[in-house]
Design a protein that fits this description.
Distance between the termini: 46 Å
GO molecular function: carbohydrate binding; galactoside binding; laminin binding
Protein name: Galectin
Keywords: Lectin
Largest sheet: 7 strands, antiparallel
Number of strands: 14
InterPro entries: ConA-like_dom_sf, Galectin-like, Galectin_CRD
Helix content: under 10%
CATH class: Mainly Beta
Order of helices and strands: EEEEEEEEEEEEEE
Number of domains: 1
Low-confidence stretches: 1-8
Pfam families: Gal-bind_lectin (PF00337)
Structural class: mainly beta
Radius of gyration: 15 Å
Mean pLDDT: 88
Length: 143
């Protein structure tokens, strides 16, 4: 399944993105990518891996810039099960992506490009994506 977010919506600081889906029984990996409109640069490559690329039940995050992958960061928390629903919440802050998983564990992945906005998202893998919600979280001024 490939879903692309409309290009007329820009992901900015304080955006919260919620993705809900159902993972197929024979899925090896699925990806959520947030990047530029043609994905020449990916600020967040979020990749839960059941059995892919030498990783088994690991979440891998990375960036992609100018044709090259950055250094992978791997996490041990893996609340994903084949054949079951999942929920991922991604908060975009000035310094990082804060990813909350279904079991409420949190992944903090740096905004390596220091970008203030991204223009596209895609969802890839053997997953039926049932909901994609993006909302702006108000930023309150300091007192």
């Amino acid at each position: 399944c490939v879903a692309r977010h409309p290009t007329n919506r820009i992901f900015k600081f304080a955006d919260e993105t919620t993705v809900i889906g159902l993972i197929s029984d024979n899925n090896e990996v699925f990806n959520i990518n947030i990047g530029t409109d043609k994905f020449t640069n990916i600020g967040l490559h979020f990749s839960p891996r059941f059995d892919y690329g030498g990783d088994h039940n690991r979440v891998v995050c990375n960036t992609f810039q100018d044709g090259n992958w950055g250094e992978e960061v791997k996490w041990g928390s893996f609340p994903f099960c084949q054949g079951q629903e999942f929920k991922v919440i991604i908060d975009f802050t000035p310094t990082e992506f804060v990813v909350t998983l279904s079991d409420d564990s949190v992944i903090n992945f740096p905004n390596r490009f220091n970008a203030k906005e991204y223009s596209a998202m895609n969802l890839l893998g053997k997953v039926r994506f049932t909901s994609l919600q993006i909302k702006q979280i108000p930023i309150l001024p300091c007192a």
